[in-house]
Protein backbone atom coordinates (compact mmCIF):
# COMPACT_ATOMS: atom_id res chain seq x y z
CA UNK A 1 0.00 0.00 0.00
CA UNK A 2 1.41 3.38 -1.03
CA UNK A 3 1.87 6.25 1.34
CA UNK A 4 -0.91 8.13 -0.46
CA UNK A 5 -3.50 5.49 0.36
CA UNK A 6 -2.24 5.18 3.92
CA UNK A 7 -2.69 8.93 4.42
CA UNK A 8 -6.21 8.84 2.95
CA UNK A 9 -7.22 5.88 5.14
CA UNK A 10 -5.85 7.52 8.29
CA UNK A 11 -7.55 10.81 7.38
CA UNK A 12 -10.88 9.10 6.72
CA UNK A 13 -10.67 7.21 10.02
CA UNK A 14 -9.85 10.41 11.93
CA UNK A 15 -12.67 12.34 10.27
CA UNK A 16 -15.26 9.63 10.60
CA UNK A 17 -14.29 8.83 14.18
CA UNK A 18 -14.45 12.52 15.07
CA UNK A 19 -17.84 13.01 13.42
CA UNK A 20 -19.29 9.81 14.89
CA UNK A 21 -18.00 10.62 18.37
CA UNK A 22 -19.37 14.17 18.26
CA UNK A 23 -22.74 13.05 16.89
CA UNK A 24 -23.14 10.23 19.42
CA UNK A 25 -22.08 12.40 22.35
CA UNK A 26 -24.57 15.08 21.27
CA UNK A 27 -27.29 12.46 20.78
CA UNK A 28 -26.86 10.75 24.14
CA UNK A 29 -26.51 14.08 25.95
CA UNK A 30 -29.71 15.41 24.38
CA UNK A 31 -31.55 12.12 24.97
CA UNK A 32 -30.50 11.92 28.63
CA UNK A 33 -31.47 15.55 29.14
CA UNK A 34 -34.86 14.89 27.56
CA UNK A 35 -35.38 11.78 29.72
CA UNK A 36 -34.63 13.77 32.86
CA UNK A 37 -36.95 16.52 31.67
CA UNK A 38 -39.76 14.00 31.12
CA UNK A 39 -39.22 12.18 34.42
CA UNK A 40 -38.60 15.24 36.60
CA UNK A 41 -40.81 17.88 35.00
CA UNK A 42 -43.09 16.96 32.10
CA UNK A 43 -44.92 13.97 33.56
CA UNK A 44 -45.23 15.43 37.09
CA UNK A 45 -46.57 18.63 35.53
CA UNK A 46 -49.16 16.61 33.59
CA UNK A 47 -50.20 14.92 36.83
CA UNK A 48 -50.45 18.29 38.58
CA UNK A 49 -52.56 19.69 35.76
CA UNK A 50 -54.96 16.75 35.81
CA UNK A 51 -55.16 16.95 39.59
CA UNK A 52 -55.87 20.69 39.41
CA UNK A 53 -58.60 20.17 36.84
CA UNK A 54 -60.15 17.40 38.93
CA UNK A 55 -60.18 19.72 41.92
CA UNK A 56 -61.66 22.49 39.78
CA UNK A 57 -64.43 20.19 38.55
CA UNK A 58 -65.15 19.17 42.13
CA UNK A 59 -65.51 22.73 43.45
CA UNK A 60 -69.00 23.13 42.05
CA UNK A 61 -70.45 19.89 43.46
CA UNK A 62 -68.75 20.65 46.81
CA UNK A 63 -70.53 24.01 46.78
CA UNK A 64 -73.85 22.31 45.93
CA UNK A 65 -73.42 19.81 48.75
CA UNK A 66 -72.60 22.67 51.12
CA UNK A 67 -75.82 24.48 50.15
CA UNK A 68 -77.80 21.29 50.75
CA UNK A 69 -76.29 20.80 54.19
CA UNK A 70 -77.18 24.35 55.22
CA UNK A 71 -80.59 24.41 53.54
CA UNK A 72 -83.27 25.26 56.15
CA UNK A 73 -85.77 23.05 54.34
CA UNK A 74 -83.64 19.96 54.89
CA UNK A 75 -83.00 20.74 58.54
CA UNK A 76 -86.60 21.72 59.25
CA UNK A 77 -87.86 18.60 57.49
CA UNK A 78 -85.63 16.34 59.60
CA UNK A 79 -86.43 18.17 62.85
CA UNK A 80 -90.15 17.88 62.03
CA UNK A 81 -89.82 14.10 62.01
CA UNK A 82 -89.33 13.27 58.33
CA UNK A 83 -93.12 12.94 57.91
CA UNK A 84 -93.46 13.79 54.18
CA UNK A 85 -91.15 11.53 52.15
CA UNK A 86 -92.44 13.05 48.92
CA UNK A 87 -91.16 16.47 50.01
CA UNK A 88 -87.53 15.35 50.40
CA UNK A 89 -87.80 13.31 47.22
CA UNK A 90 -88.97 16.36 45.25
CA UNK A 91 -86.20 18.41 46.80
CA UNK A 92 -83.50 15.90 45.81
CA UNK A 93 -84.99 15.57 42.33
CA UNK A 94 -84.91 19.35 41.95
CA UNK A 95 -81.26 19.47 43.04
CA UNK A 96 -80.36 16.75 40.54
CA UNK A 97 -82.18 18.46 37.66
CA UNK A 98 -81.13 22.02 38.47
CA UNK A 99 -77.42 21.32 38.90
CA UNK A 100 -77.23 18.42 36.42
CA UNK A 101 -75.65 16.01 38.88
CA UNK A 102 -75.57 12.28 38.45
CA UNK A 103 -77.52 11.81 41.67
CA UNK A 104 -78.39 13.54 44.96
CA UNK A 105 -79.10 12.04 48.37
CA UNK A 106 -79.76 12.58 52.04
CA UNK A 107 -79.17 10.02 54.82
CA UNK A 108 -80.97 10.65 58.11
CA UNK A 109 -78.97 9.81 61.19
CA UNK A 110 -82.14 9.36 63.24
CA UNK A 111 -84.04 6.95 60.97
CA UNK A 112 -81.03 5.76 58.90
CA UNK A 113 -83.14 6.09 55.75
CA UNK A 114 -81.25 6.74 52.49
CA UNK A 115 -83.33 9.28 50.53
CA UNK A 116 -82.92 9.56 46.77
CA UNK A 117 -84.79 11.34 43.93
CA UNK A 118 -86.51 7.98 43.46
CA UNK A 119 -87.62 7.90 47.08
CA UNK A 120 -86.51 6.26 50.33
CA UNK A 121 -84.35 3.45 49.00
CA UNK A 122 -83.08 1.69 52.11
CA UNK A 123 -81.94 2.06 55.67
CA UNK A 124 -78.16 2.15 56.07
CA UNK A 125 -76.71 -0.47 58.37
CA UNK A 126 -73.39 -1.02 60.04
CA UNK A 127 -73.50 -4.62 58.90
CA UNK A 128 -73.84 -3.75 55.23
CA UNK A 129 -70.39 -3.17 53.62
CA UNK A 130 -71.99 -0.88 51.07
CA UNK A 131 -73.00 1.47 53.90
CA UNK A 132 -69.62 1.54 55.60
CA UNK A 133 -68.91 4.94 54.10
CA UNK A 134 -71.66 6.60 56.16
CA UNK A 135 -70.46 5.41 59.55
CA UNK A 136 -66.87 6.15 58.69
CA UNK A 137 -67.79 9.65 57.52
CA UNK A 138 -69.97 10.28 60.57
CA UNK A 139 -67.04 9.65 62.92
CA UNK A 140 -64.64 11.73 60.82
CA UNK A 141 -63.88 15.29 61.90
CA UNK A 142 -63.93 16.72 58.37
CA UNK A 143 -67.12 18.57 57.39
CA UNK A 144 -67.18 16.90 54.00
CA UNK A 145 -65.42 14.25 51.95
CA UNK A 146 -65.05 13.17 48.36
CA UNK A 147 -65.63 9.48 48.00
CA UNK A 148 -65.73 7.19 44.99
CA UNK A 149 -68.05 4.31 45.60
CA UNK A 150 -70.87 2.29 44.13
CA UNK A 151 -74.17 4.14 43.92
CA UNK A 152 -76.62 2.89 46.54
CA UNK A 153 -79.45 3.34 44.05
CA UNK A 154 -77.53 1.51 41.31
CA UNK A 155 -74.73 -0.70 42.70
CA UNK A 156 -73.42 -1.42 39.19
CA UNK A 157 -72.38 2.20 38.75
CA UNK A 158 -69.24 3.81 40.19
CA UNK A 159 -69.92 7.40 41.23
CA UNK A 160 -67.91 10.28 42.69
CA UNK A 161 -69.81 11.35 45.83
CA UNK A 162 -69.40 14.60 47.73
CA UNK A 163 -70.67 13.84 51.23
CA UNK A 164 -71.45 16.84 53.45
CA UNK A 165 -72.45 16.69 57.11
CA UNK A 166 -75.81 18.23 58.11
CA UNK A 167 -76.28 19.79 61.55
CA UNK A 168 -79.37 21.16 63.25
CA UNK A 169 -79.55 24.68 64.61
CA UNK A 170 -77.90 23.57 67.84
CA UNK A 171 -74.92 21.96 66.08
CA UNK A 172 -76.08 18.38 66.45
CA UNK A 173 -75.32 15.95 63.63
CA UNK A 174 -78.55 14.91 61.95
CA UNK A 175 -77.37 13.27 58.71
CA UNK A 176 -75.36 13.52 55.50
CA UNK A 177 -76.35 15.16 52.22
CA UNK A 178 -74.64 15.49 48.94
CA UNK A 179 -74.51 14.85 45.22
CA UNK A 180 -72.85 12.28 43.01
CA UNK A 181 -70.95 12.77 39.80
CA UNK A 182 -70.42 10.19 37.14
CA UNK A 183 -66.86 8.95 36.79
CA UNK A 184 -67.32 9.74 33.09
CA UNK A 185 -66.33 13.32 33.99
CA UNK A 186 -62.93 12.12 35.16
CA UNK A 187 -62.77 9.66 32.29
CA UNK A 188 -63.42 12.43 29.78
CA UNK A 189 -60.68 14.48 31.40
CA UNK A 190 -58.33 11.52 30.89
CA UNK A 191 -59.36 11.21 27.24
CA UNK A 192 -58.73 14.92 26.64
CA UNK A 193 -55.28 14.80 28.19
CA UNK A 194 -54.29 11.68 26.29
CA UNK A 195 -55.26 13.29 22.99
CA UNK A 196 -53.50 16.56 23.80
CA UNK A 197 -50.26 15.18 25.22
CA UNK A 198 -50.06 11.65 23.80
CA UNK A 199 -49.77 10.09 27.24
CA UNK A 200 -51.59 7.19 28.85
CA UNK A 201 -53.44 8.15 32.03
CA UNK A 202 -55.38 5.98 34.47
CA UNK A 203 -56.29 5.69 38.16
CA UNK A 204 -55.58 2.79 40.52
CA UNK A 205 -56.80 2.26 44.06
CA UNK A 206 -54.69 1.56 47.12
CA UNK A 207 -54.46 -2.10 46.17
CA UNK A 208 -53.28 -1.53 42.61
CA UNK A 209 -56.59 -2.20 40.86
CA UNK A 210 -57.23 -0.03 37.81
CA UNK A 211 -60.37 1.99 38.57
CA UNK A 212 -60.73 4.53 35.75
CA UNK A 213 -59.05 4.50 32.35
CA UNK A 214 -59.60 5.61 28.78
CA UNK A 215 -61.27 3.48 26.14
CA UNK A 216 -57.87 2.91 24.51
CA UNK A 217 -56.36 1.36 27.66
CA UNK A 218 -55.05 -2.17 26.99
CA UNK A 219 -53.13 -2.86 30.19
CA UNK A 220 -53.89 -5.26 33.01
CA UNK A 221 -56.78 -4.63 35.45
CA UNK A 222 -54.31 -4.98 38.32
CA UNK A 223 -50.82 -3.46 38.07
CA UNK A 224 -49.41 -6.41 40.01
CA UNK A 225 -50.39 -8.53 37.01
CA UNK A 226 -48.66 -6.20 34.54
CA UNK A 227 -45.34 -7.63 33.24
CA UNK A 228 -43.77 -4.19 33.38
CA UNK A 229 -45.46 -2.38 36.28
CA UNK A 230 -45.53 -5.34 38.68
CA UNK A 231 -41.86 -4.71 39.48
CA UNK A 232 -42.73 -1.17 40.61
CA UNK A 233 -46.13 -1.92 42.23
CA UNK A 234 -44.88 -1.74 45.81
CA UNK A 235 -42.96 1.44 45.06
CA UNK A 236 -46.09 3.09 43.61
CA UNK A 237 -48.49 1.97 46.34
CA UNK A 238 -46.26 2.93 49.28
CA UNK A 239 -45.23 6.41 48.16
CA UNK A 240 -47.27 9.60 47.64
CA UNK A 241 -45.43 10.11 44.36
CA UNK A 242 -42.81 8.31 42.29
CA UNK A 243 -41.12 8.50 38.90
CA UNK A 244 -39.33 5.78 36.95
CA UNK A 245 -38.95 4.31 33.47
CA UNK A 246 -38.83 0.84 31.92
CA UNK A 247 -38.19 -0.74 28.52
CA UNK A 248 -40.98 -2.27 26.49
CA UNK A 249 -40.88 -3.39 22.83
CA UNK A 250 -37.71 -1.39 22.21
CA UNK A 251 -39.18 1.81 23.68
CA UNK A 252 -38.49 3.67 26.89
CA UNK A 253 -41.70 4.13 28.89
CA UNK A 254 -41.66 6.94 31.46
CA UNK A 255 -44.02 6.64 34.45
CA UNK A 256 -45.12 9.14 37.08
CA UNK A 257 -47.52 8.39 39.93
CA UNK A 258 -49.12 10.59 42.57
CA UNK A 259 -51.72 10.05 45.24
CA UNK A 260 -55.00 11.94 44.82
CA UNK A 261 -56.14 12.23 48.46
CA UNK A 262 -59.72 13.24 47.55
CA UNK A 263 -60.20 9.86 45.84
CA UNK A 264 -57.62 7.94 47.83
CA UNK A 265 -56.47 6.73 44.41
CA UNK A 266 -53.19 6.98 42.53
CA UNK A 267 -53.00 8.90 39.29
CA UNK A 268 -50.67 7.12 36.83
CA UNK A 269 -49.24 8.97 33.82
CA UNK A 270 -47.24 7.00 31.25
CA UNK A 271 -45.43 8.25 28.18
CA UNK A 272 -43.51 6.38 25.51
CA UNK A 273 -40.67 7.96 23.55
CA UNK A 274 -41.80 11.50 22.92
CA UNK A 275 -41.81 13.22 19.49
CA UNK A 276 -38.78 15.12 20.74
CA UNK A 277 -36.97 11.79 21.15
CA UNK A 278 -37.83 10.88 17.58
CA UNK A 279 -36.55 14.27 16.39
CA UNK A 280 -33.31 13.78 18.31
CA UNK A 281 -32.88 10.35 16.72
CA UNK A 282 -33.63 11.71 13.24
CA UNK A 283 -31.13 14.49 13.89
CA UNK A 284 -28.53 11.84 14.76
CA UNK A 285 -29.22 10.03 11.48
CA UNK A 286 -28.96 13.30 9.53
CA UNK A 287 -25.72 14.13 11.35
CA UNK A 288 -24.29 10.72 10.47
CA UNK A 289 -25.33 11.12 6.83
CA UNK A 290 -23.84 14.61 6.82
CA UNK A 291 -20.68 13.23 8.40
CA UNK A 292 -20.34 10.65 5.66
CA UNK A 293 -20.92 13.28 2.97
CA UNK A 294 -18.44 15.72 4.53
CA UNK A 295 -15.91 12.91 4.99
CA UNK A 296 -16.26 11.90 1.34
CA UNK A 297 -15.90 15.54 0.21
CA UNK A 298 -12.82 16.02 2.39
CA UNK A 299 -11.34 12.75 1.13
CA UNK A 300 -12.04 13.78 -2.47
CA UNK A 301 -10.36 17.15 -1.92
CA UNK A 302 -7.49 15.41 -0.11
CA UNK A 303 -7.19 12.92 -2.99
CA UNK A 304 -7.09 15.70 -5.57
CA UNK A 305 -4.64 17.73 -3.48
CA UNK A 306 -2.37 14.75 -2.84
CA UNK A 307 -2.47 13.80 -6.51
CA UNK A 308 -1.65 17.37 -7.46
CA UNK A 309 1.29 17.52 -5.10
CA UNK A 310 2.34 14.02 -6.08
CA UNK A 311 2.39 15.02 -9.74
CA UNK A 312 4.27 18.14 -8.78
CA UNK A 313 6.78 16.15 -6.74
CA UNK A 314 7.12 13.64 -9.53
CA UNK A 315 7.68 16.49 -11.96
CA UNK A 316 10.28 18.00 -9.64
CA UNK A 317 11.92 14.62 -9.26
CA UNK A 318 11.97 13.95 -13.01
CA UNK A 319 12.59 17.37 -14.53
CA UNK A 320 15.35 19.89 -14.38
CA UNK A 321 14.27 22.86 -12.28
CA UNK A 322 15.81 25.48 -14.59
CA UNK A 323 14.92 24.20 -18.05
CA UNK A 324 11.99 21.86 -17.44
CA UNK A 325 13.82 19.14 -19.39
CA UNK A 326 14.07 15.57 -18.17
CA UNK A 327 16.82 14.82 -15.66
CA UNK A 328 19.12 11.84 -15.19
CA UNK A 329 16.56 9.93 -13.11
CA UNK A 330 14.20 9.91 -16.06
CA UNK A 331 16.96 8.79 -18.38
CA UNK A 332 17.92 5.94 -16.02
CA UNK A 333 14.35 4.68 -16.18
CA UNK A 334 13.60 5.34 -19.87
CA UNK A 335 16.87 4.25 -21.52
CA UNK A 336 16.58 0.50 -20.71
CA UNK A 337 12.99 0.59 -21.92
CA UNK A 338 13.91 2.30 -25.18
CA UNK A 339 16.77 -0.15 -25.81
CA UNK A 340 14.48 -3.13 -25.18
CA UNK A 341 11.81 -1.67 -27.45
CA UNK A 342 14.28 -0.90 -30.25
CA UNK A 343 15.67 -4.43 -30.21
CA UNK A 344 12.17 -5.97 -30.03
CA UNK A 345 10.98 -3.93 -33.04
CA UNK A 346 14.29 -4.07 -34.91
CA UNK A 347 14.49 -0.27 -35.02
CA UNK A 348 17.60 1.92 -34.66
CA UNK A 349 18.23 3.98 -31.53
CA UNK A 350 20.74 6.81 -31.30
CA UNK A 351 22.16 8.82 -28.47
CA UNK A 352 23.67 12.32 -28.64
CA UNK A 353 25.48 14.29 -25.97
CA UNK A 354 26.05 18.01 -26.47
CA UNK A 355 28.19 20.44 -24.54
CA UNK A 356 28.10 24.26 -24.84
CA UNK A 357 31.42 25.82 -25.84
CA UNK A 358 32.35 29.05 -24.11
CA UNK A 359 29.64 28.83 -21.50
CA UNK A 360 32.11 29.31 -18.63
CA UNK A 361 33.19 32.63 -20.09
CA UNK A 362 29.54 33.79 -20.22
CA UNK A 363 29.13 32.94 -16.54
CA UNK A 364 32.40 34.60 -15.60
CA UNK A 365 31.71 37.73 -17.64
CA UNK A 366 28.01 38.31 -17.16
CA UNK A 367 27.21 36.29 -14.05
CA UNK A 368 25.23 33.17 -13.33
CA UNK A 369 21.76 34.72 -13.94
CA UNK A 370 22.77 35.42 -17.55
CA UNK A 371 24.24 31.94 -17.75
CA UNK A 372 20.92 30.50 -16.56
CA UNK A 373 19.09 32.53 -19.21
CA UNK A 374 21.45 31.17 -21.85
CA UNK A 375 20.91 27.57 -20.70
CA UNK A 376 17.13 28.04 -20.58
CA UNK A 377 16.92 29.67 -24.03
CA UNK A 378 19.02 26.91 -25.63
CA UNK A 379 16.86 24.26 -23.92
CA UNK A 380 13.81 25.84 -25.54
CA UNK A 381 15.64 25.77 -28.86
CA UNK A 382 16.38 22.03 -28.47
CA UNK A 383 12.78 21.28 -27.55
CA UNK A 384 11.45 23.08 -30.61
CA UNK A 385 13.81 21.23 -32.98
CA UNK A 386 13.30 17.66 -31.71
CA UNK A 387 10.40 15.26 -32.10
CA UNK A 388 7.82 14.49 -29.48
CA UNK A 389 9.19 10.95 -29.19
CA UNK A 390 12.71 12.20 -28.57
CA UNK A 391 13.94 12.55 -25.00
CA UNK A 392 15.99 15.67 -24.23
CA UNK A 393 17.77 15.62 -20.86
CA UNK A 394 19.90 18.17 -19.10
CA UNK A 395 22.92 15.97 -18.51
CA UNK A 396 25.01 18.37 -16.46
CA UNK A 397 25.63 22.08 -15.99
CA UNK A 398 25.96 22.89 -19.72
CA UNK A 399 25.62 19.35 -21.12
CA UNK A 400 22.52 17.89 -22.80
CA UNK A 401 21.70 14.32 -23.77
CA UNK A 402 19.37 13.37 -26.63
CA UNK A 403 17.80 9.91 -26.86
CA UNK A 404 16.46 9.43 -30.39
CA UNK A 405 14.23 6.35 -30.96
CA UNK A 406 13.84 5.00 -34.53
CA UNK A 407 16.78 7.16 -35.60
CA UNK A 408 20.00 5.76 -37.08
CA UNK A 409 23.48 7.23 -36.94
CA UNK A 410 23.08 9.15 -40.20
CA UNK A 411 19.78 10.74 -39.16
CA UNK A 412 21.22 11.56 -35.77
CA UNK A 413 24.20 13.25 -37.46
CA UNK A 414 21.86 15.38 -39.55
CA UNK A 415 19.91 16.48 -36.49
CA UNK A 416 23.14 17.14 -34.63
CA UNK A 417 24.34 19.47 -37.39
CA UNK A 418 21.04 21.35 -37.31
CA UNK A 419 21.29 21.77 -33.56
CA UNK A 420 24.90 22.85 -33.74
CA UNK A 421 24.13 25.40 -36.41
CA UNK A 422 21.08 26.73 -34.51
CA UNK A 423 23.13 27.22 -31.36
CA UNK A 424 25.88 28.96 -33.31
CA UNK A 425 23.31 31.40 -34.71
CA UNK A 426 21.57 31.88 -31.38
CA UNK A 427 22.25 35.13 -29.49
CA UNK A 428 21.12 36.41 -26.11
CA UNK A 429 20.92 40.18 -25.61
CA UNK A 430 22.59 41.33 -22.42
CA UNK A 431 22.45 45.12 -22.06
CA UNK A 432 24.08 46.31 -25.30
CA UNK A 433 25.83 43.02 -26.02
CA UNK A 434 24.75 40.00 -28.03
CA UNK A 435 26.06 36.95 -26.23
CA UNK A 436 26.40 33.55 -27.87
CA UNK A 437 27.98 30.12 -27.49
CA UNK A 438 28.62 27.13 -29.73
CA UNK A 439 27.76 23.45 -29.40
CA UNK A 440 29.92 20.33 -29.57
CA UNK A 441 28.16 17.00 -30.01
CA UNK A 442 28.97 13.33 -29.93
CA UNK A 443 26.65 10.72 -31.39
CA UNK A 444 26.42 6.94 -31.07
CA UNK A 445 23.99 4.39 -32.49
CA UNK A 446 22.90 1.39 -30.44
CA UNK A 447 24.72 -1.80 -31.38
CA UNK A 448 23.66 -5.35 -30.62
CA UNK A 449 26.13 -5.63 -27.74
CA UNK A 450 25.51 -2.23 -26.14
CA UNK A 451 24.27 -2.00 -22.57
CA UNK A 452 22.67 1.34 -21.54
CA UNK A 453 25.87 2.58 -19.93
CA UNK A 454 27.94 1.55 -22.96
CA UNK A 455 25.72 3.49 -25.38
CA UNK A 456 26.10 6.65 -23.29
CA UNK A 457 29.81 6.03 -22.82
CA UNK A 458 30.38 5.82 -26.59
CA UNK A 459 28.41 9.05 -27.16
CA UNK A 460 30.41 10.73 -24.40
CA UNK A 461 33.70 9.69 -25.97
CA UNK A 462 32.45 11.04 -29.30
CA UNK A 463 31.77 14.35 -27.51
CA UNK A 464 35.30 14.36 -26.15
CA UNK A 465 36.51 13.88 -29.71
CA UNK A 466 34.50 16.96 -30.78
CA UNK A 467 35.94 18.98 -27.91
CA UNK A 468 39.46 17.81 -28.67
CA UNK A 469 39.05 18.47 -32.38
CA UNK A 470 38.38 22.18 -32.00
CA UNK A 471 34.81 22.35 -30.62
CA UNK A 472 31.63 23.44 -32.44
CA UNK A 473 31.47 20.17 -34.33
CA UNK A 474 29.77 16.74 -34.42
CA UNK A 475 31.73 13.51 -33.91
CA UNK A 476 31.11 9.78 -33.76
CA UNK A 477 32.90 7.43 -31.36
CA UNK A 478 36.57 6.80 -32.17
CA UNK A 479 37.29 3.37 -33.59
CA UNK A 480 38.76 2.13 -30.34
CA UNK A 481 35.39 2.67 -28.67
CA UNK A 482 33.37 0.80 -31.31
CA UNK A 483 32.03 -2.49 -29.93
CA UNK A 484 33.71 -5.62 -31.14
Sheet with the most strands? Answer: 6 strands, antiparallel
**What count of domains describes the coordinates?**
3
Query: How many DSSP E strands?
Result: 18
What is the name of the CATH superfamily of the largest domain?
A: Reverse transcriptase/Diguanylate cyclase domain
* Radius of gyration based on Cα positions: 54 Å
> What portion of residues is helical?
40-55%
* Uncertain stretches: 480-484
CATH topology of the largest domain: Alpha-Beta Plaits
Shape: rod-shaped
Helical element count?
A: 12
Q: Give the CATH level 1 class of the largest domain.
A: Alpha Beta
EC number: 2.7.7.65
Membrane topology: Multi-pass membrane protein
Protein name: diguanylate cyclase
Organism: Marinobacterium zhoushanense
Describe what you observe in this structure.
It is built from 12 helices and 18 strands. It is of the alpha+beta class and 484 residues long. It folds into 3 domains: 149 residues, Beta-Lactamase; 112 residues, PAS domain (Beta-Lactamase, 2-Layer Sandwich), CATH 3.30.450.20; 154 residues, Reverse transcriptase/Diguanylate cyclase domain (Alpha-Beta Plaits). A hairpin with a 5-residue loop joins β7 and β8. The C terminus is likely disordered. Its EC number is 2.7.7.65. This is diguanylate cyclase. It is an enzyme of class 2 (transferase).
Summarize the structure.
The chain has 484 residues and is of the alpha+beta class. Helix content is 50%, strand content 23%. Strands 3-2-1-6-5-4 form a 6-stranded antiparallel sheet, with helices on both faces. Strands 8-7-11-10-9 form a 5-stranded antiparallel sheet.
Amino acid sequence: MTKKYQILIILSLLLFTGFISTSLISYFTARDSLEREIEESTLPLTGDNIYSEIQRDLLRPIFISSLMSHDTFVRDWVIAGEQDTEAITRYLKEIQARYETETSFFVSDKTRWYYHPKGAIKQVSKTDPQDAWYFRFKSDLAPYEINIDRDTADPSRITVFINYKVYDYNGNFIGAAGVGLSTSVVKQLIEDYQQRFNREIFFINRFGKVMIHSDSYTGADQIRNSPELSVYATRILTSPSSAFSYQSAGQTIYVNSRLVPEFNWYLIVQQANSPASERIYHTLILNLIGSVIVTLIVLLLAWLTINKFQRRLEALAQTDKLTGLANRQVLDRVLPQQIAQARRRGEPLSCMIGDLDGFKQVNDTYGHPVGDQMINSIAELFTSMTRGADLVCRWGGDEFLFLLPNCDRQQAGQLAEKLRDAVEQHRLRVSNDLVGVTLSLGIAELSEQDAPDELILRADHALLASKGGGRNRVSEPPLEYQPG
